[in-house]
């Protein structure tokens, strides 16, 4: 626990929101739980877990049990400090007040955010609070932020042989740093921290 906390403090920058994306390999609950617990321990506030087949989301109670077990066994953390939130549940107050929050996502979640944002904009047009010519990147981004409840991911760790994020939050990762790792199976803390170190060292030019 102390090592993780010190490692997080030592980095030049730490992602506020990290995505953990499994692509093209069998999901492992134990290994994904380790990654989530490490994220929490180094001080990452928001974590999203995603696989294209929605296995983690369909079995989110199994993943949650494994995370709670590893919090206690690996880090001796007080689990009451950490909150679990699943996508498409209206718990914005929980997101704002907890120390670390987890979302477990599947492909429909990113699409649903875009649909909901479009519906909200159409409602504003119908109420004559907006015109259709007002719609641009910034307006859509604000609408998506209001429906999503999470900040956009700063960093995505993509695990597996498929060179794609396979539909993970397609709008929200426009400016996200993506680091590919061979596999999440049997991943070590050293591999995880090495990826964080790479992120901390990268210079993001925001399209400039």
Order of H and E elements: HEHEHHEHEHHEEH
Report the sheet with the most strands, covering strand number, pairing sense and barrel closure: 6 strands, parallel
Shape-level CATH architecture of the largest domain: 3-Layer(aba) Sandwich
In angstroms, what is the radius of gyration? 18 Å
Concise account of the structure shown:
The protein is an alpha/beta fold and 208 residues long.
SSE arrangement:
Blueprint: H1 2-10, E1 17-22, H2 29-42, E2 46-51, H3 55-58, H4 60-75, E3 83-84, H5 92-97, E4 101-105, H6 107-126, H7 137-148, E5 155-159, E6 177-181, H8 189-201
Parallel strand pairs: 1-2, 1-5, 2-4, 3-4, 5-6
Helix pairs in contact: 2-4, 6-7
How would you characterize this protein structure?
The protein is α/β, with parallel strands linked by helices and 208 residues long. It folds into 2 domains: 2-107 and 149-201, Decaprenyl diphosphate synthase-like (Undecaprenyl pyrophosphate synthetase); 111-145, no CATH class. 45% of the residues lie in helices and 14% in strands. A 6-stranded parallel sheet has the order 3-4-2-1-5-6. α5 links the parallel β3 and β4. α2 (29-42) crosses α4 and α6 (107-126) crosses α7. The longest helix has 20 residues, at 107-126. It is globular, with a radius of gyration of 18 Å. The termini are far apart. 33% of the residues are buried.
